[in-house]
Automatic annotation (TrEMBL):
Keyword terms, alphabetized: Amino-acid biosynthesis, Hydrolase, Methionine biosynthesis
Native organism taxonomy: Eukaryota, Metazoa, Ecdysozoa, Nematoda, Chromadorea
Protein name: Enolase-phosphatase E1
Source organism superkingdom: Eukaryota
An annotated Gene Ontology molecular function: acireductone synthase activity
InterPro entries assigned to the protein according to its UniProt record, in alphabetical order: Enolase-ppase_E1 (IPR023943), HAD-like_sf (IPR036412), HAD-SF_hydro_IA (IPR006439), HAD_sf (IPR023214)
Length: 251
């Protein structure tokens, strides 16, 4: 793909699932891997230094959730890997956006990536577009509900090689939920940019609305396998079918 004129925005912010990687990769590869290996991973690593603070957080979260959810077990000790693993599997099944869960998944996926059991899926257009943005010095950032650690693993072990040199930074739900406009304002503040100077790409209507409410420019990404979008949302936001369309858009 050839060079393109510098766009009016000063930074590109990308969602991951359904935008740069297929939903099926997350749903059919990453989540099942974490679900199937939760017990073994926690049994092996629960006493490790790298998991110490995370296990504390999982225990605290478990006991909070157990008070309102009969499917969640109370955890009496940080060494009770069976109860924690049981809770983790319930949260994965329910696709809960819980930071301790996401952090644990990141550690588990690290093993999978480093062992070569998993390679991060990215759509064919992603590498070329990231390279073009890198050449014209428009920084590209990632914002995903998956932990920053998990994001870096996906891009550093992708089917197209290590893409992290082409990315300028990462955000996860530490800045807030992706359907909350305040989260996008925080990202703009951290980047020292006005929200209107940032273009956000996502396949999720609620995220698009939140980013737009924060003042960001927004394109909706429509890819095969993504959830259908209602006509009103597709009328409200410009839609693109691949990142290569960005070379044709400068607004």
């Amino acid at each position: 793909m050839g060079m393109f004129e510098r766009p009016q925005y000063k930074a590109l912010l990308l969602d991951i699932e359904g935008t740069v990687t297929s939903i099926s990769f997350v749903k059919d590869v990453l989540f099942p891997y974490a679900y199937e290996n939760a017990e073994q991973y926690l049994q092996t690593n629960i006493k490790s230094d790298k998991l110490k603070s995370l296990v504390d957080a999982l225990m605290e979260l478990s006991n909070q959730e157990a008070a309102v959810d009969d499917n969640i077990q109370k955890v009496e000790s940080t060494e009770d890997w069976k109860a924690i693993a049981s809770n983790v599997k319930v949260w994965i099944q329910n696709d809960r956006k819980l930071k301790p869960l996401k952090d644990l998944q990141g550690f588990m996926w690290e093993d999978a990536y480093l062992s070569g059991k998993v390679l991060g899926h990215v759509f064919p257009d992603v590498k070329y577009v990231l390279n073009d943005f890198y050449i014209v010095q428009i920084p590209v950032y990632i914002y995903s509900s998956g932990s920053v650690h998990a994001q870096k693993l996906l891009f550093s072990h992708s089917i197209d090689g290590d893409l992290t040199p082409l990315l300028s930074g990462y955000f996860d739900t530490s800045v807030g939920p992706k359907i909350d406009a305040t989260s996008y304002k925080k990202i703009a503040d951290q980047l020292k940019l006005q929200p209107n100077d940032i273009l956000f790409l996502t396949d999720v209507a609620k995220e698009a609305i939140a980013a737009s409410d924060a003042g960001m420019r927004v394109f909706l990404v429509v890819r095969e396998g993504n959830a259908p979008l209602c006509p009103d949302i597709m009328t409200r936001f410009k839609t693109i079918n691949c990142l290569e369309a960005l070379v044709c858009h400068d607004d």
